[in-house]
Amino acid sequence: MTGPVNGLTGELVVVHVSDAVNSILTGRGDVSYQSPPLPHEEAMTLVRLLLGRSGTPQDNNVTWRCPIAGGQRTITVEPLCMLESASPTNRARP
User: Are 11 and 40 contacting, i.e. CB atoms less than 8 angstroms apart?
Assistant: First the structure.
């Protein structure tokens, strides 16, 4: 794989996956997953696997969508530092 995705090469990232499905068709509701922090290359390998594509996801993308049986999968890559700064435990208390 070549090139950074939105400048994230070398940085730990988290992959968020959300499957929005029609529960009448699938017999289950929506599901979501958040990966542990991963190096960029490993995260992009996970993205390719989840998209069901062997090629490289387009550079500068941080969100992808693909059809799944009965719905749609949304995958987002977010830098770990963004998650840590948004965490309620890291905010200053009054």
Answer: yes
